Automatic annotation (TrEMBL):
GO biological process, one term: lipopolysaccharide core region biosynthetic process
Origin organism lineage: Bacteria, Pseudomonadati, Pseudomonadota, Betaproteobacteria, Burkholderiales
The protein's name in its UniProt record: Lipopolysaccharide heptosyltransferase 1
Compartment(s) where it occurs, according to its Swiss-Prot or TrEMBL record: Cell inner membrane
UniProt family annotation: Belongs to the glycosyltransferase 9 family.
Origin species: Paraburkholderia ribeironis
Enzyme Commission identifier(s): 2.4.99.23
Length: 335
């Protein structure tokens, strides 16, 4: 096998969690070229993966909003780039119309996608010459690894490898006097996924007492207002300036702890091997959660609001180790 195309168009968290498929394929087929096709909005994230040979992207999301002629021309240009190489296999691990169209336009006689009941949009099935097996009984992220392995005929081995290397920041993402930094990703794209502001305040105050400095990133005017509301009540906390995706990633990489709801940047924190606590209010932790012993953990059942005590227990957990009790680590972590 010489060349494989992976199609995963959006969104940030889903793309992060799909990246281990690349490492799996490279391990199974030494020397294979692996390309990735997706939306331009997330191209920089894919480019951080050192194992991907070519990143193909188009401004699909932006064109849907603007309908600008320049964006349409960029999409047409991307189709020509997509068709430069012939692929032994195309693996669509997205399963909607736009990913299926990308798979169909690329050059290959073997285009593999989900079974109809597992597709995000059933009409996407038109593009495929073969299908993955039934969706396995595991979380969505491991499921993508299994689906790709079934399509290409190898066994999934070992933990997920993200192989991310961020560009070096021009300037430090924040300035503190040697204190460990905790980033709070309090905002989400859906209101039902939010954790109450007073809960964030309570956790922020506790972490401040433990010696942490709390940083509050944001992406919209509404999110900034929420961050400011939290910051007023958490001593020493900082509302960060608006940042690019790369800037936020570099900020995460400089943190000691990341706490947030089920959102893309928290998945990125997990992939960057930061101590990470993900809080679930309205989505399924068993399907979308993160888990790495004493490093990443999911909190909540996805049907109710987790209490502050659950988040603090999770923070203790990611600062513990099999040989050291959580309370001891909690004190020494801020020394």
């Amino acid at each position: 096998m010489k060349r494989v195309l992976i199609v995963k168009v959006t969104s940030l968290g889903d793309i992060v969690q799909a990246l281990p498929v690349v490492a799996d394929i490279k391990r199974a087929f030494p020397g294979v070229q692996v390309d990735w096709a997706g939306d331009e909005a997330f191209a920089e994230l894919v480019q951080w993966n050192e194992s991907i040979d070519r990143v193909l992207c188009a401004p699909l999301r932006r064109f849907k909003k603007t309908r600008r002629w320049d964006d349409l021309k960029a999409i047409w240009a991307s189709i020509a780039e997509l068709r430069v190489h012939h692929y032994d296999f195309i693996i669509d691990i997205h399963g909607v119309y736009k990913s299926a169209i990308i798979a169909f336009l690329a050059r290959s006689s073997r285009r593999i996608g989900y079974q109809s009941q597992d597709l995000g949009e059933r009409g996407a099935a038109f593009a495929y010459t073969g299908r993955f097996g039934p969706r396995p009984q595991c979380n969505a992220w491991h499921g993508m690894r299994i689906s790709a392995s079934e399509a290409l005929g190898y066994e999934v081995e070992g933990p997920a490898l993200y192989n991310l290397r961020l560009p070096e920041p021009v300037n430090p993402p924040f300035t503190v006097d040697g204190a460990p930094v905790a980033a709070f990703f309090h905002s989400t794209s859906k209101n039902e996924k939010k954790w109450p502001s007073n809960h964030w305040v309570a956790v922020g105050r506790e972490l401040t007492q433990r010696g942490f400095r709390v940083m509050l990133p944001w992406g919209s005017a509404g999110e900034r207002a929420e961050a400011e509301q939290i910051a007023v009540q958490v001593p020493g906390s900082t509302v960060l300036p608006q940042m690019s995706v790369t800037g936020i990633a570099q900020m995460i990489d400089a943190c000691a702890l990341v706490v947030g709801t089920d959102t893309g940047f928290v998945h990125l924190a997990h992939a960057l091997q930061k101590r990470t606590v993900m809080i679930f209010v309205a989505t399924s932790p068993s399907h979308c959660g993160i888990e790495s012993p004493y490093r990443s953990i999911s909190v909540g059942d996805g049907r109710s609001v987790p209490p502050v005590s659950a988040a603090l227990a999770a923070i203790d957990h990611v600062y513990a180790s099999p040989r050291e009790p959580a309370m001891q680590v909690r004190r020494s972590a801020v020394a």
